């Protein structure tokens, strides 16, 4: 049986990760001891590792059942890129391909075999399973088993045969959908034996949460895009038409964007999705039809151009950002108009009450003046004790002012208008607009006409929303969205209640402060970003050559760490999270070379950047210069040059130290080592040798000695 420490070693070897995430380790431990488990983890939480690591750590093959054909291919590609042999069987393969996979499975070559539920239920596949040594059965997207869920798959209900026919094989069921009914359904239908249930937190702290009023949306989006034009992002829109229009507008502004919705042909949709995954088109304007079954880990932002109809959908959509765990932004544009539109859709559909209630929760979230993450998570039954610090409200807590007069003005105008107008007309009247409708209806004759002229229409809208939110007025959706004054509003009107409002400027300030801080960046940050862009280009080239998605080569997280730490030798780059053995063999040197080039380029430009000094020394050394010559060129001491070279030698680089010391010198120094006792400090040897042998020589001998005797010191 395999142990958890072997599992950990495999995590480093195949995936290049140093440690398991919370819960992964416990889950894997259970699986390794043949326990059935159910795993509930949010998208991006790291579910796949929970069965992939046992699959490679145990003898035999793991069968993975997955309903998403497109995803299967990506997962298999990603595994192969990590040096794990995997394959899939589904309806997309021609029969020769199928046979090949089956043969590979039978010969015991495959560590993971992905299969669609349809295929799993065939007699052929059952026979194949009988001839295999199966170490684990993983059921991905396990919520598909539940008729209550949103992706019900009838075939999934037949999966109970697995436990009946293969009682000795542990089953791991995984899903990102958390509700209780579904959870129970999974457990009963799969007939798991005494299953352990793991429920991970649904918090995604790396996603920033931002909400802005739906004003100047395009301008805001452009600002965001222009900061990092190569970043991948999704703009979710309510209508198919707006996906097309916004994509068109973006392209017109020089941004590479495409649109996606359900009415495009299957080929067009597949193409757009592929372009996005492969980083050919960074930005997709889409309806919510887009995103299901996309595993792309480097989506850096998600914007909701319109209000989503409920929090479940919203959370799932923003969850597509930042799967790699890196900071990612989300932005929701909020408008009352969208609320009205969504309400009208709901009116026409079934389950009205439930859906309206869900929309209201969504609205409350959008209008919140308290930590948004708390609201989100409490919706899913999780309660944060602290404010999150990564939402617009936390970062920019709103301050109140006495808005009683403004509110009274609005309410009094509304009263005089007999509560027969909508938000837009009320603003027109308050601002003294001479629009035809206002004049025709005689609204310009009422006493409060023009009373709020000094406030812009956009700001009035902001204030009115706040008044709505605080319950001083409400919208009558049944009657042309006319505004009504509530009893609470009457109290304000008759001076019995004070109102606190928030300045619209503050809300607008958020975009600048939160989407991305664009203040002067420290030099190191600039270098990091520049190098990241370079590495990203290289990744793209490699991906295109191999026809694989760029994030399969290395994730953004891995490239970020490389840009920060700038590894220039094997030992260093292997420490970067995400650089496993196979990836090192395939791409390690390419990235090292790129990093060295970058450092050299910076040096030529007169910049000194950390870690570079060794590289330059080594570069001169390789071009054939002697220690003294290098010292002269670099205007540093020979001792420093030598310390660089011995350091590199210690790390396993090719440096011919032997030629820098004579055999006799070496012998004398070795003798000192043996007599005094070998150690890190050079001074004892120097003194023992009566200060007759220079430090340089002792240092050289020490490096050679260490290598011969295979001695390693901590932090060396
Ligand atoms: P899920 O299937 O739950 O949506 P994935 O399994 O795709 O999530 O994992 C999300 C991302 O996190 C992937 O890029 C994956 O490689 C990475 N990841 C998973 N486990 C670890 C870990 N222990 N250390 C670092 N990265 C991890
Ligand atoms: Zn917060």
Would you kindly provide a written description of the structure presented here, covering whatever features stand out?
There is one protein chain. With 716 residues, the protein is α/β, with parallel strands linked by helices. The chain is 50% helix and 11% strand. Strands 3-4-2-5-6-1-7 form a 7-stranded parallel beta sheet, sandwiched between helices. Strand 12, helix 13 and strand 13 form a beta-alpha-beta unit. Helix 29 (612-622) crosses helix 31. The model has no long low-confidence stretch (mean pLDDT 89). The structure holds adenosine-5'-diphosphate and zinc ion. Adenosine-5'-diphosphate (ADP) is lined by residues 17, 20-21, 24, 41, 43-49, 297, 323-324, 555, 577.
Give the gist of this structure.
The chain is an alpha/beta fold. Helix 29 (612-622) packs across helix 31 and helix 32 (663-676) crosses helix 34 (695-709).
List the helices and strands and how they pair.
Elements: H1 4-15, H2 24-32, E1 37-40, H3 47-57, E2 61-65, H4 69-81, E3 86-89, H5 95-106, E4 112-115, H6 117-120, H7 123-130, E5 134-139, H8 161-165, E6 171-175, H9 180-190, E7 196-199, E8 207-213, H10 217-227, E9 232-236, H11 240-252, E10 257-260, H12 266-277, E11 283-286, E12 299-304, H13 311-318, E13 328-334, H14 336-348, H15 352-367, H16 372-379, H17 392-395, E14 400-402, H18 404-416, H19 423-430, H20 436-440, H21 457-469, E15 473-476, E16 482-485, H22 487-493, E17 500-502, H23 504-515, H24 523-546, H25 550-553, H26 556-565, H27 570-573, H28 581-604, H29 612-622, H30 627-634, H31 638-650, H32 663-676, H33 683-688, H34 695-709
Parallel strand pairs: 1-6, 1-7, 2-4, 2-5, 3-4, 5-6, 8-13, 9-11, 9-12, 10-11, 12-13
Antiparallel strand pairs: 14-17, 15-16
Helix pairs in contact: 1-3, 2-3, 14-15, 18-19, 18-22, 19-21, 24-26, 24-28, 29-31, 30-31, 31-34, 32-34
Zinc ion binds at residues 371-373, 387-388, 391, 393-394.
């Amino acid at each position: 049986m395999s142990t958890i420490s072997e599992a950990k070693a495999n995590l480093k070897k195949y995936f290049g990760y140093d440690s398991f995430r919370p819960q992964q380790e416990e889950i894997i431990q259970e699986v390794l001891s043949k326990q059935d488990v159910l795993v509930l983890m949010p998208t991006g939480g790291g579910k796949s590792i929970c069965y992939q690591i046992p699959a490679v750590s145990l003898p035999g093959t793991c069968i993975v059942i997955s309903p998403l054909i497109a995803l299967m291919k990506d997962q298999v590609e990603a595994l192969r890129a990590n040096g794990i042999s995997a394959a899939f069987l589904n309806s997309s393969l021609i029969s020769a391909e199928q046979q090949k996979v089956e043969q590979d499975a039978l010969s015991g070559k495959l560590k993971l075999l992905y299969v669609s539920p349809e295929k799993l239920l065939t007699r052929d596949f059952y026979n194949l399973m009988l001839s295999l040594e199966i170490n684990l059965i993983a059921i991905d997207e396990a919520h598909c088993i539940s008729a209550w869920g949103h992706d019900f798959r009838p075939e999934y209900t037949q999966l109970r045969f697995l436990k009946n026919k293969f009682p000795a094989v542990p089953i791991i069921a995984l899903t990102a959908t958390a509700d209780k009914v579904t959870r129970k359904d999974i457990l009963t239908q799969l007939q798991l034996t005494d299953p352990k249930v793991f429920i991970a937190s649904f918090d995604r702290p790396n996603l920033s949460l931002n909400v802005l009023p739906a004003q100047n949306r395009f301008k805001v989006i452009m600002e965001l895009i222009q900061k990092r034009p190569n970043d991948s992002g999704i703009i979710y829109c309510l209508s198919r038409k707006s996906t097309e229009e916004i994509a068109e507008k973006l392209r017109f502004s020089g941004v590479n964007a495409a649109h996606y919705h359900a009415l495009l042909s299957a080929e067009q949709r597949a193409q757009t999705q592929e372009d996005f995954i492969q980083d050919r088109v960074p930005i997709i304007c889409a309806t919510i039809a887009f995103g299901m079954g996309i595993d792309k880990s480097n989506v850096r932002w998600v914007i909701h151009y319109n209000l989503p109809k409920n929090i479940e959908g919203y959370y799932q959509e923003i969850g597509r950002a930042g799967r790699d765990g890196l900071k990612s932004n989300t932005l929701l544009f909020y408008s009352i108009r969208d609320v009205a539109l969504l309400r009208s859709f709901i009116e026409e559909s079934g389950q009205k009450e439930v859906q309206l209630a869900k929309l209201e929760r969504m609205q409350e979230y959008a209008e919140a003046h308290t930590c948004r993450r708390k609201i989100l998570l409490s919706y899913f039954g999780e309660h944060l004790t602290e404010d999150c610090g990564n939402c617009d409200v936390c970062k920019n807590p709103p301050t109140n002012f006495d808005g009683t007069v403004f509110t009274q003005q609005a309410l009094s105008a509304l009263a005089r208008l007999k509560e027969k107008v909508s938000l837009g007309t009320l603003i027109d009247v308050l601002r003294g607009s001479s629009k035809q409708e206002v004049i025709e209806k005689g609204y310009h004759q009422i006493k409060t006409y023009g009373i709020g002229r000094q406030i812009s229409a956009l700001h009035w809208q902001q204030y009115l929303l706040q008044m709505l939110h605080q319950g001083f007025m409400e919208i009558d959706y049944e009657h042309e969205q006319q505004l009504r004054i509530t009893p609470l509003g009457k109290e304000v009107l008759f001076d019995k209640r004070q109102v606190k409002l928030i300045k619209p400027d503050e809300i607008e300030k958020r975009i600048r402060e939160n989407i991305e801080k664009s203040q002067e960046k420290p030099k190191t940050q600039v270098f990091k970003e520049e190098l990241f862009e370079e590495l990203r280009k290289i990744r793209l080239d490699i991906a295109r050559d191999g026809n694989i998605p760029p994030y399969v080569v290395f994730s953004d997280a891995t490239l970020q760490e490389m840009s920060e730490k700038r590894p220039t030798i094997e030992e260093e780059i292997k420490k970067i999270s995400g650089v496993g053995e196979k990836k090192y063999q395939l791409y390690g040197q390419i990235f090292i070379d790129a990093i060295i080039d970058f450092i050299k380029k910076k040096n030529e430009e007169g910049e000194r950047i950390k870690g570079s000094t060794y590289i330059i020394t080594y570069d001169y050394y390789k071009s054939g210069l002697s220690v003294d010559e290098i010292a002269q060129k670099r205007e540093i001491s020979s001792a420093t040059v030598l310390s660089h070279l011995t350091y590199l030698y210690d790390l396993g680089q090719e440096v011919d130290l032997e030629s820098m010391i004579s055999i006799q010198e070496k012998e004398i120094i070795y003798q000192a080592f043996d007599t005094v006792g070998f150690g890190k400090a050079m001074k004892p040897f120097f003194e023992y040798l009566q200060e007759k042998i220079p430090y340089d020589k002792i240092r050289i001998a020490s490096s050679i000695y260490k290598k011969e005797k295979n001695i390693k010191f901590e932090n060396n």
